Amino acid sequence: MTSGTIKRIGVLTSGGDCAGLNAAIRAVVQRAIRGYGWQVLGVKEGTRGLLERPLMYEELSLRIFTGNILRMGGTILGTINKGDPFAYDMPDGTVEDRSQAFVDGFHELGLDGLIGIGGDGSMKILSRLAQQGGIPFIGIPKTIDNDVPFTEFSIGFATAVTAASEALDRLQPTAASHQRVMILEVMGRDAGHLALNAGIAGGVDVILIPEIPYHLEKIADKIASLRQQGRNHALVVCSEAIRSADGGSVTTTHVDGEVRYGGVGHGLGEQIAQLTGAETRVTVLGHVQRGGAPSSRDRIIASAFGVKAVDLLAEGRTDRMVAWQHREVVAVPLEEVVSRNHNVEVNGTLVNTARGLGICLGD
Ligand code: F6P
After folding, report:
1. What is the reported pLDDT for 195?
2. Residue 279 belongs to a domain with what CATH number?
3. What is the pLDDT of residue 183?
4. Are 125 and 214 members of one domain?
């Protein structure tokens, strides 16, 4: 399918929200309408919009894109992070394969192509759906976890790093005033990019990430060495899925059966207090990292991704994900994207930077 045969495309956001999604939607609409004269339908609430009957969608015209949308957090289309059509939770509690309903929904709307803005999980699901239904598909990576492979940045990551490093800016003076060890727990699931970047930007003393199992004694040694230098407060940033060298990470199973991270910092704070005698306080930053206005970097990346995604559809170069590599937007085959993951490289530049700054990584 090339630009001459495309008349109408769909765009959806899938998985957890983050800052910059609206900027990407805006770019898709601007490029599709201005550049190619296509019609754009916004599919509501991720995959659900094409699974439900009646179908959930709205036409996105240039008129709805007032000056504000670029600056808005969240997603005007809505999203869900439980919308896997291959294992869909039905209202009666059963789980069904509803993938064909998604494909049928795509055709019922008369769409000629689909752009999906999502994280690594969404890329896997959407590319499988596209293959099954012969849907010309392009993926745009977004996630505050920054764990989508082949792209240096995913939409939302930069804003989340700013939120976490600003939190550290606020924690430092109160840590110093009260001579406390402040622990900031950040999100990121099993990837430590957010903690590592925020920790360096926020000038912390200890960074704990899932990729490097930690020893409590190493953290205690670091705090002791700070005391010897005459400093009686410290900042620690930890990922929500950290693992101690001799134990597992902390997850909670909720009433809906979903396993979630969050709260590991509290136990860590207790352990540090016991071992060092320091007074500790814990802040779990949570969804604050996902909200707010997108940073300028996220707006730029989202805009570049949106324009490129439409151009790829027009060229007929589908089954690809746009990616940021060496200051350029490139197209990566989805079959490669879904076969890899993207964790922190334990010998990479930023880990070495942290070590060079004297930051303890718990090992
Ligand atoms: O994947 C993004 C993310 O924010 C993770 O960092 C976090 O663990 C998870 O989503 C939280 O999901 P929910 O919004 O369902 O609580």
Report:
1. 98
2. 3.40.50.460
3. 98
4. no
Q: Ligand 1: does its nearest atom lie under 6 Å from the Cβ of 290? A: yes
Identify whether the C-beta of residue 83 lies closer than 8 Å to the C-beta of residue 45. Answer: yes
Of 146, 98, 101, 134, give the one whose Cα is nearest residue 290. 146
Confirm whether 336 is domain-assigned. Answer: no
Q: Would you report the helix, strand and coil content of the chain in percent, each value rounded to 5?
A: 40, 20, 40
User: Using a 6 Å cutoff on CB, does residue 146 contact ligand 1?
Assistant: no
Atom from ligand 1 closest to the CA of residue 119 = 1
Residues 146 and 194 placed together within one structural domain of the fold? no
Asked if residues 184 and 168 have their Cβ atoms less than 8 Å apart, the reply is yes
Tell me the CA–centroid distance for residue 187 and ligand 1, in Å: 7
- The answer to whether 144 and 289 have CB atoms below 8 angstroms apart is yes
Q: What is the DSSP letter of 90?
A: P
Chain centroid, CA 292 distance in Å: 14
143 lines ligand 1 (CB under 6 A): yes
Ranges of the chain with pLDDT below 50: none
> Residue 285 C-alpha to ligand 1 middle, in angstroms?
12
Q: Which residue range is the domain that position 118 belongs to? A: 8-155+292-325
- Ligand 1 center to residue 127 CA distance, Å? 21
251 lines ligand 1 (CB under 6 A): no
* Count of structural domains within the chain: 2
Task: Give every CB contact of residue 232 below 8 A, 6+ residues apart in sequence.
Answer: 179, 226
C-alpha 349/C-alpha 144 separation (Å) is 20
Cα 5 to Cα 7: distance, rounded to the nearest angstrom: 6
Residue 99 counted as domain residue: yes
Residues carrying an active site annotation: 145
Provide the Cα torsion 216, 222, 228, 231; round to 10°.
-110
In the three-class reduction of DSSP (H, G, I as helix; E, B as strand; rest coil), residue 194 is classed as helix
Q: Residue with the nearest Cα to atom 12 of ligand 1?
A: 16
122 shares its domain with 219? no
Torsion of CA 352, 355, 359, 363, to 10 degrees: 100
Quick check: is 302 in a domain?
yes
